[in-house]
Amino acid sequence: MSAAEIGWRLREQATRRAWARRQVHGNGLERLPPLAAVTGPAQARRFTSVLPPGTAELVPEAARAAIVADADRLLKGEWETLGVVRTDMERPDWFADPVTGRRSAPGAYAFSLNQRDESAVGNVKQVWEASRLQHLTLLAVAWYLTGEDAYPLRVAEQLDSWWRENPFLSGINWTSGIELGIRLVNFAWIRRLLNGWPGAADLFERNELAVRQVRWHQEYLAAFRSRGSSANNHVIAEAAGQLVASCAFPWFAESVRWRRDSARLFERELAHNTFPSGINRELASDYHGFVAELGFFAAIEAEAAGVPLSDATWRLLCAMTDCMAALVDERARPPRQADSDEGRVVLLDAPEHNRWPALLSLGTALFGRLGWWPPVTTDTGQVLAAALLGTAGSGTRVVSGRPSERPSRFADAGLTILRTEPADSPEIWIRCDGGPHGFLSIAAHAHADALSVEVRHGGTDILADPGTYCYHGEPAWRSYFKSTIAHNTAEIGGQSQSTECGPFMWSRQARCRELEVADPGRTWAAQHDGYQALRPPAAHRRSVRLDPGARAVEICDVIDGGGHEVRMAYHFGPLVRMSLDGTMAALSWPDAKVPGAARLALPAGLEWRAYRGSVSPVLGWYSEGLGRKTPAVTLVGTGRCRPDAPLVTRIEFTEPEITAED
User: Fold this and answer.
1) C-beta neighbour count of 312 within 10 angstroms
2) Which of 389, 364, 390, 362 is nearest to 300 (CA)?
3) What span, in angstroms and rounded, lies between the C-alpha atoms of 414 and 514?
4) Which of 165, 315, 318, 519 holds its CA 20 to 30 A away from the CA of 149?
5) Which residues of the chain have pLDDT under 70?
């Protein structure tokens, strides 16, 4: 951290201590001063940013049915959060972690709590997930589509519960600005979707507790925001939440200033967080989608309020959208690069583990679909966004300079996709990582994955990025899933390319650069300097070649320097079966949506061993999402590096064998 950032953090700590006197305790709500001084009389408060009549009828039946099915499960108390199926959502405990069973102190001053201390607060991601209140937005959508009163009555009951049990600065749900920002966006959409319900105004603008909560959230975000080395997706969420709230609920003396300041902050930080190509600088696929979604909802709300964001910001959001369309495989699955916590902003459709199709649908409403995009299914989010933009008189944005063909290389981000042509199905899709380690000095969501690759066949993970699994509470697992050996690349000298110094911090970061690509879309080459600190120094160069005619992928690794021990890892998706014979392996995935098989020829200079679900050493794991891991095959080749002996790996995809049982 710089001296300036250290000084700012010290000042913020002093402010946090001073704000302890502003904490509102649960039994002190009735003693708060009147709101009139900052909002005027209740009858002057209005919610005017509503959807046009007839919008609900435009929602496709399949989307409607999926929403109603999930909403009905919610009414029974059933809901999944980060891999955990909860059955307590009829009356959720806003402070209890369903994984560890721990419950944090509701009355504790927020800034006295250590959110990363699992012994005190449990798995904080699980606690925060329920308090994002996105499940209530889904219930509000169900009412908007059906008119059934059970949905808004449950929304009103749980909003009142949350507002009463989480007064200003009391408890774990006031410890992170990103959570407040997401809640504000959901407050706005809940109010919008319930507009035709007779109790909507009594629940929001005529409800002093609701108005106080909307104000408290914005006061917090105006005073505390992510800066310096932590100004990543968190600051985008904080600014987007304040912008949405100040547009949707302009009820306070400070609303104009909050809107102006948050719009300026949002636009500046979105540009700072994004490469000119449109790729998010954290180089974590999941966070690219998360930041794009924040941008979509901030831009829609500002447009609906008559205070549109700049053309430059709209162009950047459009570039982010086109990047998503370019990166996905034939099943619209995004890469699995670096950290993922499955973060989402607003639930206007039934949740899916892969939300990129929904983001592309939302992007279609904002910018229109290009001809090379993957197919996009119209869903509720697209219909509602288009309707709200229509009421603002803007509709779909026309952005000039969009790519006429699907791009394969994003040079500023060091990200390249090699793939076969759409007519040559099943698709072979390869992600090659030759970009920076991460974003900002701490690179919070980076993995030590320089020169790693992902290979898919028909949308099935063959060479897989194992994922993330956890953020808090299990440090050994957190370290493993971030490490070099947990990725499809080479570890040299028994250490990762980059050095971690905490669950979200790196003290040394490998520098990676792509080399000249002679045949775009078919070949790729890059190198990194992560092992220059070894004695003697070592360097790793890798090239990847896709041969569509032979349906083969060839990976060539050259490691210069010192004869250090090398461990090369290849991680397979959970559907892949593997039989190893020396340096040859037979692969098959008969249970995949698109079954297939391949022959794998491994570098002869290494000794290869297979692992599956091993805990000593930790190897052979695949995490579908946060809180979930499943055994999968990992091959590890061990030997000594020799610059005159390139390590060549070749995968040849073949037709699967058909047996009598098939």
Assistant:
1) 11
2) 389
3) 6
4) 165
5) 1, 37, 40, 657-662
What local confidence, expressed as pLDDT, does residue 339 receive? 97
CA 100 to each of CA 29, 269, 298, 472: distance values in angstroms, whole numbers, following the listed order:
31, 36, 35, 12
DSSP letter for 594, please: S
Q: H or E element: which one contains 558?
A: strand 552-560
The helix/strand/coil state of 86 is: strand
Element (H, E) at 556: strand 552-560
Q: Which phi and psi (to 5°) does residue 519 adopt?
A: -130, 85
Q: Across the chain, how many H-helices and E-strands are there?
A: 17, 25
What average pLDDT is seen over the chain? 94
Q: What domains lie within the chain, and their CATH numbers?
A: 60-226+244-251 (no CATH), 274-406 (no CATH), 409-654 (2.70.98.70)
Q: What is the dihedral of CA 125, 361, 184, 197, to 10 degrees?
A: -120
Sheet with 490-492, side-by-side order of all strands: 490-492, 565-571, 633-640, 607-612
The whole-angstrom separation of Cα 145 and Cα 557 is 56
Tokens representing 138 are 């889904």
DSSP string, 70-111: HHHHHHTT-EEETTEEES-TTS--TTB-TTT--B--TTSBGG
Task: Please state, in angstroms and rounded to a whole number, the distance separating the CA atoms of residues 629 and 651.
Answer: 26
User: Would you mind telling me the total number of residues written for the chain in this entry?
Assistant: 662
Cβ contact 452:492 at 8 Å:
no
d(CA 364, CA 387): 13
Q: Which of 225, 351, 234, 355 minimizes the C-alpha distance to 285?
A: 355
* CB distance 566 to 451 below 8 Å: no
pLDDT tens for 320-335 read 999 999 999 999 999 9
Q: Under a CB-based contact definition with an 8 Å cutoff, are residues 55 and 196 in contact?
A: no
For the entire predicted model, the pTM comes to 0.96
- In angstroms, rounded to a whole number, what is the distance separating the alpha carbons of residues 9 and 12? 5
pLDDT confidence of residue 520: 75
Distance of alpha carbon 321 from alpha carbon 531, whole angstroms = 36
512 forms beta bridges with: 528
Backbone angles phi, psi at 531, to 5 degrees: -115, 25
State the DSSP string of 560-586. ESTT-EEEEEEEB-TT-EEEEETTEEE
- Provide the 3-class DSSP secondary structure of residue 487: coil
Taking the C-alpha atoms of residue 633 and residue 224, their distance in angstroms, rounded to an integer, is 45
Helix (H, G, I), strand (E, B) or coil at 83: coil
Residue 636's SS3 state is strand
Q: For helices 311-327 and 285-304, what crossing angle results, to 10°?
A: 140
Token digits for 193? 């979707």
Residue 422 has phi, psi (to 5 degrees) of -55, -35
Cβ contact 283:290 at 8 Å: no
Amino acid 44: pLDDT: 78
- Cα-Cα end-to-end distance for the chain: 60
Residues 508, 499: Cα–Cα separation, whole Å: 5
| 462-474 residue pLDDT tens | 999 999 999 988 9
Q: Please state, in angstroms and rounded to a whole number, the distance separating the CA atoms of residues 495 and 568.
A: 12
Two tokens, residue 440: 């900002």
CB 240, CB 195: distance < 8 Å: no
Residue 355 structure tokens = 């939300």
